[in-house]
């Protein structure tokens, strides 16, 4: 089985806050969707920062371990190199360019593509999210929260990444909008074979969406396995699912 992303014994510390990740190991097989669950402060966003080369911007640094992406050791590489290697991120809070139009935001995501391929990839995103086509001339700052999330996803997908990192997609959005966006992401995974690491507090949605899941608590992986196995565990049922049975959650 080809491993798209391999995190081994990764430890991360911040200058003022101390150790944030302690020996984290995680694997993401090619073409699969992996969920990373955890409460606020568990270290989920720190792990994403380590993978995407953004730790230093936030005052953090790797103290041990390795991160391998598609056969390349990537710790220490700048974010723009990772994009060219085939990695894309949908950041927490969406972070669209609000003064730019929808189409201009997508063009930013398409900047690494050959000019001849840009229009075709833009049309693919519009097909996935028809609402963006309707709003393509509108400033991103005037979009609803759900539309901005679609735009953030489209901007990440337009270059056709091999690995997509999604950080807290459901944050601040209505449940029906979140489920609709996850359905579109599922289509991306099924049709393009895009590998995805999805960071979520909404355990129910994440376990429905992913094939494998990891649970992060206080900087350590405390549970991993198939989505069904993780959903059936007492830890996840009591801490994240309100004691629902796994068959209810994953039905």
TrEMBL record:
Domain (ABC transporter) ranges: 5-243
SUPFAM superfamilies named in the record: P-loop containing nucleoside triphosphate hydrolases
GO molecular function: ATP binding; ATP hydrolysis activity; branched-chain amino acid transmembrane transporter activity
Assigned keywords, A-Z: Amino-acid transport, ATP-binding, Cell membrane, Membrane, Nucleotide-binding, Transport
Pfam families: ABC_tran
Top-level taxon of origin: Bacteria
Gene Ontology BP terms: L-amino acid transport
Family: Belongs to the ABC transporter superfamily.
Name of the protein this chain belongs to: Branched-chain amino acid transport system ATP-binding protein
Native source species: Glaciimonas immobilis
